What we know:
The chain is α/β, with parallel strands linked by helices. The chain has 9 helices and 14 strands.
Amino acid sequence: MKKETITILGCGWLGLPLAQKLVAGGYSVKGSTTREEKLEALHDAGVEPWLVRLDPEVTGDDIVAFLQSDTLIVNIPPLRRDDIIEYHIEQFSSLIDALGQSPVRSLLLVSSTSVYPALNREVTEEDAADSESLAGQALLLVEEMLMQESGFQTTVLRFGGLVGYDRNPEKYLASMTGITHPDQPMNLIHRDDCVKIIMEIIRLKQWGEVFNACSPLHPLRKEYYGRAAAIAGIELPPLVSSDDPAPFKLVNSDKLINALHYCFLHPDPLAQSV
């Protein structure tokens, strides 16, 4: 049976290895970049390369042809700018207009746990509101825009902090003058798990859902960076504590684990820096 065609809008640090896995799995994959010099890398990975920008209107290669797919994966985080919320909404308004001319019936949005405020407790998918982060506010508004569309089904995947490969704690220790909020738990997920989770959502056709995706274990910041310092053989920067405990959230991924029968490849972020 011929597998469907998948378009990935945003083939960067996460999108490119995802595209490679999809190609290896027998899917026909189109992938976009905003930089011409990256087109060759996409081609070499077996991905049909496209130059597409949302600034905020869709520009670049023929967007109608780019969106001739069964499934669209959108992996474009909000840009850091003064009008981050308005700009991100304009980007997705333009994309939604383009989707009206496409056969796409399933859309996966890569979102973030920044949509949750620090409630000093465990948070589930229903707790997204009143984010302290402008990026979180922008993402939540875009999530709602896509979920309200009737022409396609959207699944929102809220990842924790992305780690793995070149994103490791040892890399950042040298530039840290101190470990702030040392007793604050962390919500992290390895790139290998991100890719596998997206593959499983597509395989199982889990559309019209909202899922958290974080490793089930939540090390404290002092534990996470302490282990990294020990492995690297360097001194841990001083712990910077305050009289008031730092607000926190523990992102619960049980809904995803149960729906996909998912077993994390990297359940313990402390082991990821080995």
